[in-house]
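Database export, one record per block. Field names are fixed; values are copied verbatim from the stored entry.
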Amino acid sequence: FSQAIPGAHTYFAISDTRIAAHSPDFLEASRSDKGLTATLKAAAALAYTACKFLADEEFQKLVRQNFEQTN
């Protein structure tokens, strides 16, 4: 995680059960309908956040203020 600029490290579920990343179970879950749906929702949320940050100066200020307060 960045110490220099704001960033995000997102996690989202692709399975109804807890599975280890980079395992055969993870591979199967990533191919599932649930995995695809979760990935598309996460990607949309990240894209929305990026667009909001680029287009909204007040949001940029809030993000930077929060980052500076927590680092």
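Remark 1: Residues 33-55 form the longest helix (23 residues).
Remark 2: The helical segments are 24-31, 33-55, 57-70.
End of record.
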